[in-house]
Amino acid sequence: MAGIRQVIATLTNDGQDKMGATTVAWRYPDANILNGSLLTVESNHFAVLKSRGAILNVYETGQYTVSTPDRPLLGTIQQTFFGGQSPFQYEVIFINRSKLILTAKGLAYSKEMAEMAYEVNCYIHIDSKEDALRLVQHMPMAGHTLSTADVDAYSAPVIEQSINKVVQLNELERVNEKMPEIIELVKQHLQDFLSVYGITLNDVKVLVFPRDQRMKELISLRAFGLSEIDAVRYYVAMMMAEHGLVSAPNMAVGEPFVMGMTLAPSSPLIPGKDHP
Questions:
Q1: Helices within 147-200 (DSSP H only)
Q2: Which of 232, 213, 207, 223 has its CA nearest to residue 173?
Q3: How are beta strands 38-41 and 7-8 bridged, if at all?
């Protein structure tokens, strides 16, 4: 109600905080904020006061009496000309300064055009009042909440381009050798991008792996020192063993399997002598 001092905070009546682990910014839903209202900013928040698009102030942790340029209007004038509502509209946007996590998933392609899946976790935070101001100025909000998923949507193309820049120049089996280079490139490009929005990048975790399950198992076998053809034989032998085929060991060692007889390794098949 107009003219009544109100408390502006992120806590609801039942004690729950609107700023959760996935909320970057939250707009206080009541725009009828009057001169003298109490603004409470928690220890892990910033607050930005706006009026019709113009930023009036940025607050750090503490409790403040909001000082707005308007003065209370006489009741009859306010009722007659503005229908009981104040003509001065204000909004408060709370900014989460806690460390948050961004996630990204996608596909990259190796030098042989093999599909490589990647998963990226980025740890971010809003460091200062100036950064909170840049976030409000440059990052659009749809509705009352700006979530980490919204920031993910902005960051995903930068991450994809950074990873592909390295992966596309290397063979499938050499991609893991390039992980330090991939991580450093993602950090560099992503920090340059996020700094425009006042977001500080703390750390990046990157995982790149073959998308195809069979390819992952073949590469694992190659890691034991097997040649390409031996890795394929052992992989097929494991698949055969899972289906209960008795010829699986023969596939692993590369020897033929004939029902009802036993062959010595590399022994020739002599008709009439090696079979009943």
A1: 148-167, 179-194
A2: 223
A3: parallel
| Nearest one of 189, 182, 184 to 207, comparing CA atoms | 182
The mean pLDDT of 34-49, rounded to a whole number, is 88
Nearest to 3, CA basis, from 115, 108, 83, 85: 85
Task: Classify domain 100-211 at the CATH topology level.
Answer: Tetrahydropterin Synthase; Chain A (3.30.479)
Residue 147, pLDDT > 90, answer yes
Query: Per residue in 238-271, pLDDT tens?
Result: 778 887 887 777 777 777 777 665 445 554 544 4
- Give the pLDDT confidence score for residue 59 in this predicted structure: 94
Residues paired with 106 in a beta bridge: 118
Alpha carbon distances (Å) from 183 to 20, 99, 102, 225: 28, 19, 15, 27
Q: Is residue 122's pLDDT more than 70?
A: yes
- For 199-221, give the secondary structure using H, E and C: CEEEEEEEEEEECCHHHHHHHHH
Lowest mean pLDDT among 150-164, 228-242, 261-275: 261-275
30-39: per-residue pLDDT in tens?
A: 867 777 788 9
CB hemisphere CA count around 37 (13 angstroms): 26
Domain extent listing, the chain: 7-96, 100-211, 217-253
Cβ 172 vs Cβ 220: under 8 Å: no
